[in-house]
Design goal:
alpha/beta; Spore Coat Polysaccharide Biosynthesis Protein SpsA, Chain A; eight-stranded mixed beta sheet
Amino acid sequence: MTQAPILSVVVPVYKEERSIKPFLDRLEPVLAPLGSYEILFALDPSPDRTEAVIEAEIARNPRIGLIVMSRRFGQPSATMAGILHAQGEACVVIDVDLQDPPELIEAMVAKWRDGFDVVYAQRRSRKGETLVKKAISYFGYWVINRLSDVAIPRNTGDFRLLSRKVIEELRRLPERHGFLRGLVAFVGFRQAAVDYDRDERAVGQGNYNRFLGSMRIGLNGLIGFSTVPLSLLMWLGLAVASLSVLGILFIVATFAMGTDYPLGVPTLVILVLFLGGVQLTGIGLLGEYIGRIYEEVRHRPRYIVERRINLPPPPSA
């Protein structure tokens, strides 16, 4: 690449050999009228031919580049690696499965040229998703926005455009849990939405567990950007303790009035299970925060790049 591109497109991939060509067939005609561009694949090492397919596309189009991780670090880390390697004045993050239409990039670029630093794609509808998945997503965004220190737009994913200003601010953030939506919301700047209807996956099956993956992402978003759960845990403990004191006072008062209480084994079992559940939940929540503290203080890199193909080192190198 002889000159710095105006637009970078970052595409995290893993086991997507069948998706690469259909994706590029739709993406390249969209990018051609927009000026200079680069397409940057960030690959977690795959057991299939994903890397070989991308290398063949690089030989065809020199504007395509590839970053290969030393091992599988996960999609958030691969995405961040691609963003931090991007050379463009703006960067678009998009998945390769064509659920997010590349044609929307034109509208994103138009918003960026109007002065917005972040342009996120907001879903009007989601084809191919179950009612349970939609309910989990809605509830997750509701909880995060209620408790988080930053507001994260509903019905959004990582499909978004970031200006160079935002990319450089993301470079300064050292978090190991790369919850991109939260990090971009934390950075701020002028942001705008572009609405669209999300399609079903074009080719093959996803490598993402929708239920567990959504829960994990939601947990990262909540714990990474709020300490409110810790405060709620404290208030829950105070409430349970207050109820216990009130219960003791009630029993003492009624016993003094001559009430004879039978042995309450079921009641005791219920109370013990309830209090045990509260305690274990609290310990687990504390463990999540402490685990993240432990990961941060080790200062291990978020990802390790094994090799770059048709790409220079990142700007910070």
